[in-house]
Write a structure and sequence with these properties.
The protein is an all-alpha fold and 90 residues long. It has four helices and no strands.
């Protein structure tokens, strides 16, 4: 259940598959209220390419990193089974 200030907090995502990564990217974009066309323009990509990423097809690493960066996210890799504590930015 979402708390009262969940809408202003950044969420974290676990993606173990391309599809899960695509779902996370789509969720991040939608929570920011950004259209595929707007976001694609910000990273010098195309709306169809962004759509493919969100459907879980193989992303180009450069585009993936730019998409995460312009929305205030970064990719973190941890050993599977680790316990991770995520604190909101201050």
């Amino acid at each position: 259940m979402e708390g009262p200030d969940e809408s202003v907090q950044m969420r974290w995502y676990r993606a173990r598959t391309k599809r899960a990564l695509g779902v996370a990217l789509q969720s991040i974009r939608q929570r920011a209220g950004t259209s595929q066309s707007e976001l694609a323009a910000r990273v010098s990509s195309s709306r169809p390419h962004l759509s493919r990423l969100e459907r879980g097809t193989s992303p180009q690493v450069d585009t993936l990193m730019q998409l995460l960066d312009v929305q205030g996210y970064e990719l973190v890799m941890v050993p599977r089974g680790s316990t991770v504590t995520v604190e909101p930015p201050r």
